Amino acid sequence: MHKYIIKRLLYLIPILIGVTFIVFAIMHFSPGDPATLLLGEDTTQAEIERVRELMGLNDPFIVQYGRFLWGAVRGNLGNSLSSGLPVSQEIGARLPATMLLAFGSIIVALVIGLVMGILAATKQYSIFDGGSMFFALLGAAMPNFWLGLMMILFFSVYWNNTFGYSLLPSSGYGTFRHLIMPAIVLGTAHAAYITRITRSSMLEVLRQDYIRTARAKGMSERKVVYYHALWNAMIPVITITGLQFGVLLGGSVVTETIFSWPGVGRMLVAGIRTQNYPVVQGSILVFAVLFSLVTLGVDILYAFIDPRIKAKYKS
């Protein structure tokens, strides 16, 4: 197992180099001049050229990329053009909010998705099955911004106008009540995919011979479903959950914007809008590392779910 982990970690090196190169090239060749953005439009051309020289913007592209890559290896992602603070410090200040929202959302998605998926599979063609599939279609098609606005209107605006206080805060960060609406908005969309995957995986497992054998031995249906079938149906569920969690760690820009959630995704969009190159490059690099580590964690988790995969690692 440890050899596999080391091999996967080594695979991250070319992936991260490729990601950083593409992002750096896009930002480098995009319109706009960081020196002009830093000094403002009213400054002289001589002052702009002096700052460009200090920032190393007159160096060849490959030299600038090598300098950025060497700094990233040492944990130096540069300084923000707007605030002047180190990018690593700004990301570190916002990353806990993004992590909290990602964990809250994936818990909501798993609770809803697993319950509805299991019910749909064990009661196939029933009202539970039809209702679960309708929810999955609705959740996948419903825009996050619309659901977020509707929840704000009901739980904050309408509730405040009717009862004199807001049931849930419409924006902000810091308490559990602030997390509820953003987590539900994000979790509902991801729960739709988990519901469909859980249902299809459970149906496939429930048709296996060993499930019929367990039933023939007189084992209770509850034990058959939750001990034998569900455990073996979790591999594809873990896969989609891991991928969705990696996406959530990248920050849900729309949801963070609607609820004024101070996450990294919101900072990334602001950096793109203002052409704050160090913030954009540093944020995407952190997202790439987190997503790669999440996928590695999912692969390792497979071994604890399916003994056949553990045996393959040992061999």
Describe the model.
- The chain has 315 residues and is mostly helical.
- The protein has two domains: 2-73, no CATH class; 94-314, MetI-like (MetI-like fold), CATH 1.10.3720.10.
- Helices cover 79% and strands 0% of the residues.
- The chain contains 15 helices and no strands.
- It has helices at 2-29, 34-39, 45-55, 61-73, 87-122, 127-141, 144-163, 176-206, 209-216, 221-232, 234-249, 253-258, 264-273, 277-305, 307-314.
- The longest helix is centred in the first third of the chain and has 36 residues, at 87-122.
Features:
single chain; 315 residues; mainly alpha; MetI-like fold
Structural class: mainly alpha
Low-pLDDT segments, ≥5 res: none
What's the CATH superfamily of the largest domain, by name? MetI-like
Report the count of strand segments: 0
Short synopsis of the structure:
By secondary structure, the protein is mainly alpha-helical. The protein has helices at 2-29, 34-39, 45-55, 61-73, 87-122, 127-141, 144-163, 176-206, 209-216, 221-232, 234-249, 253-258, 264-273, 277-305, 307-314. The protein folds into two domains: 2-73, no CATH class; 94-314, MetI-like (MetI-like fold, Orthogonal Bundle).
Summarize the topology.
Blueprint: H1 2-29, H2 34-39, H3 45-55, H4 61-73, H5 87-122, H6 127-141, H7 144-163, H8 176-206, H9 209-216, H10 221-232, H11 234-249, H12 253-258, H13 264-273, H14 277-305, H15 307-314
